[in-house]
C-alpha cells in the first residue's frame, strides 16, 4: 500500500537525497548547489536548494542560520515567480517559528504556505502546511480544534499511499490519545506508525514512533526496561542522522520513564542533559518540559520546598506566556503533586500585534 518514504523538501538538484540522509550531508550538498545556482543566475534552483539548507539548519538546531536561509529561499522563489517554491519556503519558516515557540507567527506563515501551495498546484506542500497548522495546535494542547484536521490529513495520506505523511499523522493522533488517557488506542497507533515507517525506510518517523511506544509502555504497563530499550533503539537513529531535536526529546523521555520508576537521581541526570540540549538549539517547549521534569526530580530528592514552589510558579508563567496549554496543565498537576497551591493572578492584557505581510517577513 505504501511506497518508500521520500523527502519532498529536497528539490531541484537535491532530489537524489534520501529521507534518511544525515543532516550534515544535506547541508553540505544544499550549500554547494545553492552557490552554483546563484553563480549561474538561476533563482528558481537557488530557492529549492536554499530550502534544503534551511531545513538542515533548522533540524540541527542552528536557528539563526535557518531563519536567514528560509527567507533567502522565499526571496529567490519570488524573483523566479515560482509560487510553489514560495510556499515551501514559507512552510520551512512556519515550522521554524513553531520550533522557536512563536506560535502566532507559525500559524500565519503556514496558512500562507497552504494558500500558495494550492494556488501553485503543489498538493504536497499544501498538505505539509496544513499538517504544520495541525501540529501547532496539537503542541499547544488545542486538541478539539485540530483533532479533526489530523484525521482528515491521515485519510488523505492513506489514500495517496504517502508513508511519511501517514506516519506523521498517526503519531500526532496517537500523542493526543496518550495525553488524554486512551493508552491502548495510542499504543496501537504508534505501533502502526512504527510498522509503516520501518517498511518505508523512514528512519526519522520510526524513531519518533519508538519514542511514543516507550512512553505508553512506561505509563500504561510500568515496563521500564522495555521502554528504555525502545528509546535506545531510537537514539541510534537520532545519532546516525544527527537529529538534534529528536535526540533531546528522546533524552527527556528517558527522564520521564525513570521518574515514573522512582529512579529520581537517574531521571535528574537525563532531564539536565535534555535541558542543555534544548537550550543549545533554542527550543523553548522542550526546555520547559525538561525544566519541569528536573524540578520534580529535585523535589523528590529533597530540594527545599520553597525553591520547588518558585520554580514551578515560574514554569507556570513561562508555559502560559508561550501558549503551551497542555504543558501548563502538567505544571498545575505537578504543583498539586507536591502540595503547592498555584498562585492565582489576574489575566494579562494582551496587546494585538499586527503580523507584517509576507513580503516584509521575508526581507
UniProtKB/TrEMBL annotation:
Key words, A-Z: Repeat, TPR repeat
Matches recorded under Gene3D superfamilies: Tetratricopeptide repeat domain
Cited InterPro entries: TPR-like_helical_dom_sf, TPR_2, TPR_rpt
Protein origin, superkingdom: Bacteria
Originating species: Streptomyces thermogriseus
A Pfam cross-reference name: TPR_2
Protein name (database record): Tetratricopeptide repeat protein
SMART domains per the UniProt record, alphabetical: TPR
Amino acid at each position: 500500500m505504501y511506497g518508500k518514504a521520500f523527502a519532498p523538501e529536497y528539490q531541484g538538484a537535491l532530489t537524489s537525497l534520501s529521507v534518511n540522509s544525515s543532516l550534515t550531508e544535506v547541508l553540505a550538498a544544499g550549500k554547494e548547489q545553492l552557490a552554483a545556482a546563484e553563480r549561474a543566475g538561476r533563482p528558481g534552483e537557488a530557492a529549492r536548494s536554499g530550502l534544503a539548507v534551511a531545513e538542515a539548519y533548522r533540524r540541527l538546531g542552528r536557528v539563526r542560520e535557518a531563519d536567514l536561509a528560509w527567507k533567502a529561499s522565499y526571496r529567490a522563489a519570488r524573483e523566479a515567480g515560482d509560487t510553489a517554491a514560495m510556499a515551501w519556503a514559507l512552510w520551512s519558516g512556519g515550522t521554524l517559528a513553531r520550533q522557536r515557540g512563536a506560535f502566532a507567527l507559525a500559524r500565519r506563515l503556514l496558512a500562507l504556505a497552504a494558500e500558495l501551495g494550492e494556488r501553485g498546484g503543489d498538493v504536497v506542500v499544501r498538505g505539509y502546511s496544513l499538517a504544520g497548522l495541525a501540529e501547532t495546535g496539537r503542541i499547544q494542547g488545542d486538541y478539539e480544534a485540530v483533532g479533526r484536521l489530523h484525521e482528515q490529513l491521515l485519510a488523505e495520506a492513506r489514500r495517496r499511499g504517502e508513508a511519511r505523511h501517514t506516519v506523521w499523522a498517526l503519531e500526532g493522533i496517537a500523542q493526543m490519545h496518550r495525553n488524554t488517557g486512551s493508552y491502548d488506542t495510542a499504543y496501537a497507533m504508534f505501533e502502526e506508525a512504527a510498522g509503516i515507517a520501518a517498511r518505508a525506510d523512514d528512519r526519522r518517523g520510526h524513531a519518533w514512533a519508538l519514542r511514543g511506544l516507550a512512553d505508553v509502555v512506561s505509563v500504561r504497563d510500568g515496563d521500564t526496561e522495555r521502554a528504555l530499550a525502545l528509546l535506545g533503539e531510537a537514539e541510534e537513529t537520532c545519532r546516525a542522522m544527527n537529529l538534534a531535536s529528536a535526540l533531546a526529546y528522546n533524552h527527556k523521555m528517558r527522564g520521564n520513564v525513570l521518574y515514573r520508576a522512582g529512579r529520581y537521581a537517574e531521571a535528574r541526570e537525563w532531564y539536565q542533559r535534555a535541558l542543555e540540549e534544548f537550550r543549545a538549539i533554542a527550543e523553548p517547549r522542550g526546555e520547559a518540559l525538561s525544566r519541569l521534569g528536573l524540578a520534580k526530580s529535585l523535589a523528590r530528592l529533597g530540594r527545599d520546598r520553597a525553591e520547588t514552589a518558585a520554580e514551578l510558579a515560574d514554569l507556570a508563567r513561562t508555559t502560559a506566556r508561550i501558549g503551551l496549554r497542555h504543558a501548563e496543565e502538567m505544571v498545575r498537576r505537578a504543583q498539586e503533586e507536591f502540595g503547592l497551591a498555584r498562585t492565582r493572578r489576574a489575566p494579562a492584557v494582551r496587546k494585538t500585534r499586527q503580523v507584517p505581510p509576507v513580503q516584509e517577513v521575508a526581507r
